[in-house]
Design brief:
- This protein is α/β, with parallel strands linked by helices.
- It is built from 24 helices and 17 strands.
- It folds into 3 domains: 3-153, Orthogonal Bundle (DNA polymerase, domain 1), CATH 1.10.150; 157-329, Beta Polymerase, domain 2 (2-Layer Sandwich), CATH 3.30.460; 339-579, Metal-dependent hydrolases (TIM Barrel), CATH 3.20.20.140.
- It is 42% helix and 14% strand.
- Helix 20 (452-463) packs parallel to helix 21 (489-499) and helix 22 (516-524) crosses helix 23.
- The relative contact order is 0.08.
């Protein structure tokens, strides 16, 4: 599959065009196409063969021709043309927090800076000081952005790695002689970023590990074989999967598959704690099983290890040595939320703003997911870059949703909006419009560099608005680009608990915001959570799986999450806050 490869080319072209001050419409057309192609679950090469490239949202005739050219020749003439005289390393500077296209262009023109190392050298030599818009604080922020950018390159976002691993695991399951196969490591624990990929397999009776390893190292997408022994194989993948990604496969005997899976899943801290408990009880744990003296107590199944230690099986997402072992010993592990618990997605964008799908398409796809409802939450007027809706257009959308809902049976599209939280904490939509919505989402989209106190007060004002039900992507972070804005999360959560306002776990792979630590804190402070995808393309709805991974790492149960509620209960939750309108919140202790 060349999906990721082609999406990356379109993204780079958009960056290069933006750097050159090109037309905003043209830039956005490349970005939309890149996002849609990157989220495809089908092979783009197959779509090309079937003459279906224009079925991809955001891909018109011109983009389709470029894709076909690349699939046919391995080159894209327009890409070479756009990148001529710029260079990929210069374009990459735009991914550093604090550097926009105008600043990158200025640094390139005035100082000859073409890459990250050149930028770092210029900062060390104090050559940025005095340039337009670059003062001490701004330069400090750029330095922090460089460090964050370099760190982000060392690990792979979960949402990029998971589809790759799923594809490899499916290939291995179809391989003759494979009895069991599972991903392990940080990916199985659903950490937001992962390093190299670990996969574990066991063969059927009489099948040698070397035969399975041979199939693994010869699978499509492998560009380099690093190792190919009797029990372990290691490969690097081509860019169509994820360029340079290393995947390790270990083959173990079926009688030890469970213990090896537990061992290689980790975390290191969790496993160390288990070994301490085993030692106190005269036992020993290894990847081969759990033993008391020479007697093997178990190892075929993962549950054997935990049972022998007198505790419940612990879900992989919880294995971080954060109290889960004590809870398992006492029989009080939470019943973590599952995919089947989710009744609807509370954050989806349509073509009314910066999404690509119609209301009918969203309803159809959400129903196919098994959902009972879905929230259409388009941007409002302040987010101009996203074609945000003003009052007139939002009222028109409300009318259209009402009309569509009359035709739907057993399913409902909910009227909503993702309102901007302005610099003073007010919404960019008047209350008389907000009260006509089923649910109101609120978010900061600008002013990320405000001081901690001001940003906190801004969010608190939104939380106290009687019509705001969910604060979405609450810290504003992007895993690949920037840390979140400075925010007093304790005060935010106190206000949410007090007012009945939920916080979102945004499931988009580059956000996962709230993170697992803050999700658990929300539970402890009595704050409800929404797990939503922020989908702009229907192909992104699958990312609910990533948000649920964060929720499970945060120990959340179905009752902690508002979109596990049946429709009427969800609507009661939203209306309850409005009924409190006019009541003053209790004084902060």
């Amino acid at each position: 599959m060349k999906n990721a490869e082609i999406a990356a080319l379109f993204d780079k072209m958009a960056d290069a065009l933006e750097l050159g001050g090109e037309n905003r419409f043209r830039i956005n057309s490349y970005r939309k196409a890149a996002r849609a192609i990157g989220d495809l679950t089908e092979d783009i090469g197959l779509l090309d063969q079937q003459n279906r490239l224009k079925d991809i949202p955001g891909v018109g005739q011109g983009h389709a021709e470029k894709i076909s050219e690349y699939l046919r020749t391995g080159r894209m003439h327009r890409y070479d043309e756009v990148m001529s005289g710029i260079g990929e390393e210069t374009v990459a500077l735009m991914h550093i927090s604090g550097l926009g296209p105008k600043t990158v262009a200025m640094l390139h023109k005035q100082l000859g800076i073409v890459d990250v190392s050149g930028l770092e050298k210029a900062i060390r030599e104090d050559r940025l000081t005095g340039l337009k818009g670059l003062a001490g604080k701004k330069i400090e922020n750029i330095l922090r952005g460089i460090e964050f950018y370099k760190t982000s390159l060392e690990r792979i976002p979960l949402g990029v790695a998971l589809p790759v691993v799923t594809q490899i695991v499916e290939m291995l399951r179809e391989t003759p002689g494979v009895a069991a196969v599972q991903p392990a490591g940080s990916l199985r624990r659903m950490k937001e970023t992962v390093g190299d990929i670990d996969i574990l397999a066991a063969g059927t009776a009489g099948v040698k590990g070397q035969e399975i390893i041979k199939s693994f190292v010869n699978m499509p997408g492998v560009t380099q074989v690093l190792a190919a022994g009797g029990t372990k194989g290691s490969v690097r993948l081509e860019e169509g999967f994820h360029e340079g990604l290393q995947v390790d496969l270990r083959v173990v005997e079926a009688c030890s598959f469970g213990s090896a899976l537990q061992y290689f899943t980790g975390s290191k801290e969790h496993n160390m704690r288990l070994r301490e408990i085993a030692k106190k009880n005269g036992m020993k744990i290894s990847e081969y099983g759990i033993f008391k003296g020479d007697r093997k107590l178990g190892g075929r199944k993962e549950e054997d290890i935990y049972k022998a230690l007198g505790m419940e099986w612990i879900p992989p997402e919880m294995r971080e040595d954060r109290g889960e072992i004590a809870a398992a010993l006492q029989g009080r592990l939470p019943r973590l939320v599952k995919a089947d618990d989710i009744k609807g997605d509370l954050h989806v964008h349509s073509r009314w703003s910066d999404g690509v799908s119609t209301l009918e398409e969203i309803a159809g796809c959400a129903r196919a997911q098994g959902y009972k409802y879905c929230v259409v939450s388009d941007h409002t007027k302040s987010t101009r870059i996203a074609n945000g809706l003003d009052e007139r257009r939002l009222l028109k959308q409300i009318k259209e949703i009402d009309s569509l809902n009359k035709k739907l049976k057993g399913f409902r599209l909910l009227k909503a909006s993702e309102c901007d939280i302005l610099s003073d904490g007010s919404m960019d939509m008047p209350d008389e419009i907000l009260e006509r919505l089923d649910i109101v989402l609120a978010a900061i989209h600008a002013g990320f560099r405000q001081p901690r106190e001001k940003t906190t007060e801004r969010v608190l004002a939104a939380i106290r608005n009687p019509y705001v039900n969910v604060i979405v992507h609450p810290t504003g972070r992007l895993i690949s680009m920037r840390e979140g804005y400075e925010l007093d999360m304790d005060r935010v959560m106190e206000a949410c608990a007090e007012t009945g306002t939920a916080l979102e776990i945004n499931s988009h792979y580059d956000r996962l915001d709230l993170n697992d630590i803050n999700a658990r804190k929300a539970k402890q402070m009595g704050v409800k959570v929404a797990v939503s995808t922020d989908s702009h393309y229907l192909e992104q709805l699958w990312q609910m799986e990533l948000g649920l991974g964060v929720a499970r790492r945060g120990w959340l149960e179905a009752g902690d999450i508002i979109n596990t509620y049946p429709l009427e209960k969800l609507l009661r939750f939203c209306r309850a806050k409005r009924k409190k309108k006019g009541k003053k919140p209790a004084a902060r202790r």
